[in-house]
Every structure is written in C-alpha cells, then in structure tokens.
Amino acid sequence: MSAQPGRLDPNSQESAEAFITANTRTLAPPLVAEILLHLAEESLPIWQKSEDELGEVNVPPPYWAFAWAGGQALARYMLDNPKLLAGKRVLDLGSGSGLTAIAAMKAGASSVLACDIDRVALAAIHLNAALNGVEVATTADDLLAKPPERYDVVLVGDLFYERALADLVSRYIDVSAAQGALVLIGDPQRNYFPKGRFAAAAEYHVPVTRELEDAEIKRTAVWRLG
User: Fold this and answer.
1) Candidates 3.40.50.80, 3.40.50.620, 3.40.50.150, 3.30.310.50; correct CATH number of 69-225?
2) pLDDT tens per residue across span 28-51
3) What is the DSSP string of 178-212?
C-alpha cells in the first residue's frame, strides 16, 4: 500500500530516513559518549509527527528515537567488557535505535543482527550504524514468533514493559540460553521484569528524560543468563 499524498511511506527506507533526519539531532546518549545516534530532543512532537507524517494506521511508537535506560546500561557494559563480545555472533532483540547493536560491534563482535518489527526503527539503525562506522544487519521478522536460531550472545534492552511481550521474550531467551547463548539484559526492572531469575552483572545510574521516565536518573542493571 502506498502512502497517502503528503505523507511519508514507512515501508520505504528512503522516506523513513528522511523523516528521521528531519526530526532528530545527532547526539550521544549520556552514559555512552562513544556512540552517536539520531535522537529526538522532545518526546511529544516526534510521537505526533510519527502519526501525522508516516501515513499508516499501525505505525509503532517511535521508540527508536530515544536512548532508553536499559539500552544505555547494556551498551556501557559491553564497551567496558569487550571480551564478552569479541568474535561473537550477536542477536539484538527489539533493537530500536540500534544503540546496543552498535555497541556490540564496537566491542568486537564478528556480526550483529538487529531485530525490530518497526521498519522506521530499521532505517534508524541503518543511519546510526553508518554514523558510527560499523555494519549491522537488520531484520523486520518477528523472531519471537519463531524457534530461536543459535547465536553466541543475545541482547535484550528494555523489553519487559508489556506483559505479553515480556512473556515472549522470557521464553525466547530461555531457549537461547539452553542452546548455549550468553543472554545480556539491560533493564531498570520495569513492570514485567522477571525478578529473581537473572544474575546482576553491573549497575548504573542512567540520566534520562522526565518526559519518558519517572525520574531524571534511572537506576538500571545489566543482567546475565546462561
């Protein structure tokens, strides 16, 4: 289906990239100064513009436009512990901006597949990876609906905010860990985070925006499974 007149087509990478560059600034997340991303400075304008300009009824919210606390913590942890990623095949679930996928490549991963069902997010990942001089493969396939393929490392940044999604993620990473993958999770223990299931590897105090979070500093941990 083509976009309506005057609107951008979210399924067109060219249109999505044009929307991203027009509505974001190149910024470094507070906890990860080594990485630059196309980020929104305010939440409400880009939320509204996503609905107004991207022309499709079911365009997902622009989660890709923000560096969430879990992703920042996970990216920081990988950059500080590159031996965990060196030479590894990595899967980044719900990649959003691509922050954690980019961090994994910068930490020495041999390859990273960034998965997100939002095609605008995939365009953001493409732009952000190029901005940081790394190559990240992407897929819009819903990998949580399929049996997990084998990866050395599976990344999960801030995906426990909805019950149904949290259940799918939990099942997926359990199988991945059983297959031998190291699962690294960045999460500030959101509503549906499965407490008591993972080992905490590091803790950070992440600067965030009060527009999106309940505090200006979000206490966030990186957790390990497998």
Assistant:
1) 3.40.50.150
2) 999 999 999 999 987 667 767 776
3) HTTPEEEEEE---TT--TTSSEEEEEEEEE--TTT
